[in-house]
Task: inverse folding
């Protein structure tokens, strides 16, 4: 059997919408030489479930431990000619914060912004997917975690 080398594979990522006191948790990070805003987000590691990745990325990028409460949606974005991202966006609530935890490389700060403050910074969003996720959250989009069934991590589909 010959292995195909022309199979297209998207980059699978997670992003987390975290809300506390009507403020959204964002990271201020460097991307392509620009300081931009993003949800805590990143790539899924081998053997990791989507939910585990969302929790880990949020902790590594912000110092916040979160509890994932729902699925916001799947956002597909062709960023470059040969790079497409499948962003699995989740909703989470903050549990605890460790201010001494070093943030991931490239992350300058983790900040809380109100919707009004966030909109004032819309030109600084890392991609159009960032603002779209916040808009969808504000519009009430929310799916239960059991919408996802992971055969390797069946417990992660339970709320």
Result:
């Amino acid at each position: 059997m010959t292995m195909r080398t022309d199979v297209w594979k998207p980059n699978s990522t997670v992003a987390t919408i975290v809300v506390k006191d009507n403020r959204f948790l964002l990271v201020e990070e460097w991307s392509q030489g620009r300081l931009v805003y993003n949800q805590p987000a990143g790539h899924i590691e081998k053997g990791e479930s989507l939910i585990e990745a969302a929790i880990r990325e949020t902790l590594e990028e912000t110092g916040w431990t979160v509890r994932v409460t729902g699925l916001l949606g799947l956002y597909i974005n062709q960023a470059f000619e040969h790079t497409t991202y499948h962003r699995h966006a989740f909703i989470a609530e903050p549990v605890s914060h460790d201010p001494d935890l070093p943030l991931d490389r490239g992350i300058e700060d983790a900040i809380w912004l109100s919707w009004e403050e966030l909109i004032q910074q819309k030109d600084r969003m890392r991609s159009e997917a960032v603002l779209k996720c916040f808009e969808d959250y504000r519009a009430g989009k929310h799916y239960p975690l059991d919408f996802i069934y992971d055969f390797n991590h069946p417990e992660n589909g339970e709320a």
Observations:
- The longest helix spans residues 50-62.
- The mean pLDDT is 92.
- The chain is about 20% helix and 40% strand.
